[in-house]
C-alpha cells in the first residue's frame, strides 16, 4: 500500500508564539505535515539563548521548533504589520501566546485578521484566558502551577513537608500546547462544514485545573482523606519501587506476589474503602516483605504476577529502555551545531507517516523566500530585512 501524505499536509500555520506552550503546539502540527512559519523578533525567540547550548545553538529551542521555517519581522514597524497581513491571506491557522491585548494593539487580533481571511483559525494561548478579571495577568507555567492549587495539591501527597516544590518541569505549558492543538484541529474540521474560521481561546489556568481530578471534586464535598496517599514509593533493600494498585485484581495479584493472601480477608484491607483508610498500616506490612529484596528482585516478583510497577529511573536510564528504540520515541534533529535526539510525538498513524524536523531553522533563514511567496516586492523585502 502506498503511504499517504502526512495528516496535515497542505495546512499552513503562522506561528507568533514563543517559549514553550505555543511552540510545542506548532511543533506537533509541523510533525504532522503542516507548513509552519515561525515569526521571530530581530532578537529571536527567548528559547534560542537557553541551555543546553552547543556552539550558539540551543537544544531546547530546537526540540520545540524543529521542522518550522523562521522569518524575522519587527512588529513595531508598520511595514512588518503590512507584511503579516499579506501572509495571513494565504494561511489556515494563526497561533499566538502573548498576553491578551498585545495582538489587538498591533492590529493583528482575530477580528482584524478575519477581515482579511474569514477562514482563518486563530489560536490564542494565555495564562488565564482572553476575558475576565484575570485576563491581563502575566503568567508562565510555574505561576500557573501555584495559582491553580496544583503545587499545593502535589505538596499534600508529600508527607511531613511544608515548602512547595521548586519548578523545573513545565506541565502547564505542555498540557496547554496539546489542548490547543486538539481544539485547533476541531475548529479546522468545523470549517470544512461551515466554511468559516473562528478563534480558539486556550487558558493555561483552566488546563491545569482540569488535571486536578480528585482535588476539584474534594474541594466541593466533605471527604475524609486516608492516613497515607495510596500512590507512593515502597522501600526495597537498595532503593524504592512505585506500584499502582488501582483495581481489586491488582491488589489480589500484589498480595500473591508478596506471599500474603491473608491480606485479602484482613478486615483492614479486604474492602477498598477500609484498605484506603488503612493504607499506612498496609505499607508497613508490605515493606516487611519488600525490604528483604533488591529493587530489581521486587520489580521482578511483582511483574511476574502482573502488578503495574517500576523502579525509579533517571531520564538517562529511561531513554535506554528497549521500548524507546522499538517505538522510535526519539527522533534525530539537526541544527547549526550538529544533530541530537528529541522526543517524537507520542502517537502514530496506521496509514500515514510522521516526521519530526529534521532541520532547525536559523534565525530568519526563510524570511526572503516566505515574503516573496506572499507577494512582496524585492524592494519591500530588502527594506524589511534591513
What does this protein look like?
It is a single chain. The chain folds into 2 domains: about 10-210 and about 330-385, 3-Layer(aba) Sandwich (Rossmann fold); about 235-315, formyl-coa transferase, domain 3, CATH 3.30.1540.10. It is elongated. The strands form 4 sheets. The protein has a 6-stranded parallel β-sheet, sandwiched between helices. Strands 9-10-11 form a 3-stranded antiparallel β-sheet. It has a two-stranded antiparallel sheet with strand order 3-4. A hairpin with a 2-residue loop joins strand 9 (about 235) and strand 10 (about 240-245). The chain has about 375 residues and is an alpha/beta fold. The model has no long low-confidence stretch (mean pLDDT about 95). Helix 1 (about 20-30) crosses helix 8 and helix 17 packs antiparallel against helix 18. About 40% of the residues lie in helices and about 15% in strands. It has helices spanning about 20-30, 60-65, 80-90, 100-105, 110-115, 140-145, 150-155, 170-195, 205-210, 215-220, 250-255, 270-275, 280-290, 295-305, 315-320, 320-325, 365-375, 380-385, and strands spanning about 10-15, 35-40, 55, 55-60, 70, 95, 120-125, 200-205, 235, 240-245, 310, 330-335, 340-345. It has 18 helices and 13 strands.
Amino acid at each position: 500500500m502506498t503511504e499517504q501524505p502526512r495528516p496535515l499536509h497542505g495546512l499552513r500555520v503562522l506561528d507568533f508564539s514563543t517559549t514553550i506552550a505555543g511552540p510545542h503546539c506548532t511543533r506537533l502540527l509541523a510533525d504532522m505535515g503542516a507548513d509552519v512559519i515561525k515569526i521571530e523578533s530581530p532578537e529571536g525567540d527567548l528559547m534560542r539563548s537557553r541551555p543546553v547550548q552547543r556552539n550558539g545553538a540551543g537544544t531546547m529551542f530546537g526540540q520545540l521548533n524543529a521542522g518550522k521555517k523562521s522569518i524575522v519581522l519587527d512588529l513595531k514597524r508598520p511595514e512588518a504589520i503590512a507584511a503579516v497581513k499579506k501572509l495571513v491571506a494565504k494561511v489556515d491557522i494563526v497561533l499566538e501566546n502573548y498576553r491578551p491585548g498585545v495582538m489587538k494593539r498591533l492590529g493583528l487580533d482575530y477580528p482584524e485578521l478575519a477581515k482579511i481571511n474569514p477562514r482563518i483559525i486563530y489560536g490564542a494561548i494565555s495564562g488565564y484566558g482572553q476575558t475576565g478579571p484575570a485576563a491581563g495577568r502575566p503568567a508562565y507555567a510555574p505561576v500557573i502551577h501555584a495559582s491553580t492549587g496544583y503545587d499545593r495539591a502535589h505538596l499534600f501527597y508529600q508527607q511531613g513537608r511544608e515548602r512547595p516544590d521548586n519548578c523545573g518541569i513545565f506541565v502547564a505549558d505542555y498540557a496547554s500546547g496539546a489542548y490547543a492543538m486538539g481544539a485547533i484541529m476541531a475548529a479546522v474540521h468545523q470549517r470544512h462544514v461551515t466554511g468559516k474560521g473562528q478563534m480558539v481561546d486556550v487558558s493555561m489556568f483552566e488546563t491545569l485545573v482540569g488535571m486536578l481530578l480528585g482535588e476539584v471534586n474534594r474541594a466541593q464535598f466533605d471527604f475524609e482523606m486516608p492516613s497515607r496517599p495510596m500512590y507512593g514509593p515502597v522501600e526495597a533493600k537498595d532503593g524504592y519501587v512505585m506500584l499502582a494498585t488501582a483495581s481489586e485484581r491488582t491488589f489480589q495479584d500484589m498480595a500473591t506476589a508478596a506471599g500474603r493472601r491473608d491480606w485479602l480477608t484482613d478486615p483492614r484491607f479486604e474492602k477498598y474503602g477500609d484498605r484506603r483508610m488503612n493504607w499506612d498500616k498496609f505499607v508497613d506490612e508490605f515493606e516487611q516483605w519488600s525490604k528483604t529484596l533488591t529493587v530489581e528482585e521486587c520489580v521482578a516478583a511483582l511483574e511476574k504476577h502482573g502488578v503495574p510497577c517500576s523502579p525509579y529511573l533517571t531520564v538517562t536510564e529511561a531513554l535506554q529502555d528497549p521500548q524507546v528504540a522499538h517505538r522510535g520515541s526519539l527522533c534525530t534533529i539537526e541544527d547549526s551545531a550538529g544533530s541530537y535526539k528529541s522526543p517524537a510525538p507520542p502517537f502514530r498513524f496506521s496509514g500515514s507517516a510522521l516526521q519530526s524536523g529534521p532541520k532547525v531553522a536559523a534565525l530568519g533563514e526563510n524570511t526572503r523566500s516566505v515574503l516573496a511567496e506572499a507577494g512582496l516586492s524585492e524592494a519591500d523585502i530588502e527594506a524589511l530585512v534591513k
